[in-house]
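I am going through a labmate's work and have reached the protein record below. What it holds is a sequence and that sequence's fold in token form. Please read both lines and tell me whether the tokens look consistent with the sequence. Do not assume that whoever made the record got everything right. Thanks in advance; the entry in question is below.
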Amino acid sequence: MRDAVIKILSVEEEGRRRVEASRSEAEAVLAGADQEAKAILDRSRAAARAEAETIRRETAERAEREREALLSEARKRAEEIRRVEPGRRERLAGLLLRELLKPAP
């Protein structure tokens, strides 16, 4: 009988050790998963920041090109008006002002 009790206690102790080992292994797996998830999140955030910066830079460059094109066109038109004889220049300036001051449709 004594041997049976010792055997039962031994089996119970082995069961407790296995449960504890399983619990430790599960915690290690969860910790690893947490670290991997954090790394993935960090990489995703960095990629999103890089993409946003690229979009911002491209938008700024496009706006600058459009600004330069508008300025160039305005300079050309101003030069054309300057070259027109004085009487026509005044009429053209008046027409231009009326067009500019016309309410938007």
Observations:
- Residues 2-101 form one domain.
- The longest helix spans residues 2-83.
- The chain has one domain: 2-101.
